[in-house]
Every structure is written in structure tokens, then in C-alpha cells.
Amino acid sequence: MPTNYERAFAARPEVYAAWGELNGAIKAGMDLRRYELATLAAARRLRSSYCSLAHGTVLLERFGEPVLEIALDRRTAGLDEVDIAVMDLAERVVDDATSVADDDLQRLRDLGLPDTEIMDVVLAASARCFFSKTLDALGVRADASYLDLDAKLRDALVVGRPIADA
Question: Is residue 22 exposed (0-12), middle (13-18) or buried (19+ Cβ within 10 Å)?
Fold first, then answer.
């Protein structure tokens, strides 16, 4: 059964295919856990419930991350400085990419990230803007299967549109 986001792109399958190619290319050059952290930060800042739920679930199920704690306050969730800096940069890109200065990027360099990995964070956040805004502008709600998540986690990840009814 197709997801709600797959159904949303039914009228433009070539755009959905191109999105898959772009997103795959970004993820292929990036540590997947870091991609998910950057994407979660971007999705939350965009107020995209669907993407917050999807990427929060990946972080929880695949990486065992304390997603509820990350959503409530990543600085006290046990993440390292690199993780926090990655999420901060992703949010800055979403908020106002023109405000990102070399100091913002230097913070990540000082933590050991090369410029290609910093670019990957920017690409992940920028791509999330396209996908999240498209879904939200079309009124797409997260699949009802997310209702099965722990209520506290679900409430922390629903930052915009509510989950679809069962």
C-alpha cells in the first residue's frame, strides 16, 4: 500500500523519481545517522510532522537514538558536539540560509568535519525544505501508522499537521 507522500506525487511521478535520485545522491555520500539527525532538525524547524515522524523513527529504530530527548532538548540528550553542531547548522539553513556565515561552518571544521561533510549537511537540510514544504503545501498528513508510536514521542514529533486518521 503506498504511503500518503507517495500518493501525493502520483500526478507527477517524474518529480518523485527525481527527488529519489537527489535524496539518494545526498545520502550516498553521507553518514546515514548524521543525515537523519540533520534531517530531523530541518524537519522540526520546518514544522513538518510527517518528516519529523519518519526521520525520528529511523533514528530510534535503526540507531537506537533517544529521539524523545533529542526532540525535547538535544543539548541534554547525550549527543556529542558534532551531532549538536550538525543539527544547529541544519536549522540555520532552514531558518535563513543567507545568514549562514563562515563562523558557522568553521565550528564544524574545528570539530573535525571536512568541507564535503559540511556540504552534505547543507544539502540534506536544503533538500528537506523541498520535500517537507511540498507535502505540507499539498495538505499531506503523516500515515496513520505513526499513531502506534509511544504517545510522548509522537507528541514531540508532531510539530505541524496532525497524523492522518486510521
Answer: middle
Query: What does the pLDDT look like over 4-57, one tens digit per residue?
Result: 999 999 999 999 999 999 999 999 999 999 999 999 999 999 999 999 999 999
| Phi and psi torsions of 29, nearest 5° | -95, 10
Residue 5 is assigned to a structural domain of this protein: no
Task: Count Cβ neighbours within 10 Å for each residue of 114-139 and write b for 16 or more, e otherwise.
Answer: eeebbebbbbbbbbbbebbebbbeee
Q: Which domain holds residue 97?
A: 32-157
Q: What is the distance between the alpha carbons of residues 75 and 79, in angstroms, rounded to a whole number?
A: 7
- Fill in the amino acid letter for 65: E
Number of structural domains (the chain) is: 1
Dig out the grid coordinates for 85 from the structure.
553542531
Amino acid identity for residue 127 in this structure? A
Residue 72: which CATH number? 1.20.1290.10
Does residue 18 sit within a domain? no
Q: Which helix (H) or strand (E) holds 128?
A: helix 115-137
Residue carrying C-alpha cell 564544524: 108
Q: Which of 127, 63, 117 is nearest to 86 (CA)?
A: 117
* 57: nearest Cα among 43, 74, 76, 46: 43
pTM: 0.97
Q: Which amino acid is at 85?
A: A
